[in-house]
Amino acid sequence: MSVKGKKRGRPAANDSAQRSALSAEHILTTAKSLMREQGKMPSIRVLAGALDVDAMAIYYYFKNKQALQTAICQSLIEEIYHPETPPHHDDWQLHLHALCVSYLTLLGTYAGLLDTFLSMPDGGPAHVFIGRFEQIIAPLGLSGSASTDALHLLVDYLHGFAHAQSCAISAPSHDDPSVATLSIAMMEGPFNLYCKMLTQL
Q: Above pLDDT 70, what percent of the chain?
């Protein structure tokens, strides 16, 4: 009696179906799907099970768990809003609003992603958000220090808001409906105040 085991290592060179089925892109897509469903970064074992391959096959594409985690986070952060054209004085606020909403939506869709971002060395893929933020506020002509302070203030607020959202979702129901209905729309007031502050720097 023969036992059919999982494929080990890289798919055979003469097996085009296996080659197309397992790739870095396919691994990342599956990992993101698992993260969205489970609310945490999937382990190599769980990911291998979902892909129906041996764990060593994943290590062919990503040298270790840290490399895989970095690739997942990089792939996710690239999904946030990116202006197609350079913002101007009359529309930078609209672009910044779109960036903030897309970032909060990303953090809300993938529970545990914020904690993963914050635990990564050197800020992980934070440079993606930073680059898009700096592009959007460029028309304001802020000094380097003012731009950095504005970035830190906004990111701290967004992370606090995302954390409050996650707590509201995971908390048991109670008599205060405002906690259970915390939505991105509730950031409008603070966001408008923040933008007004930027124009006065």
A: 83
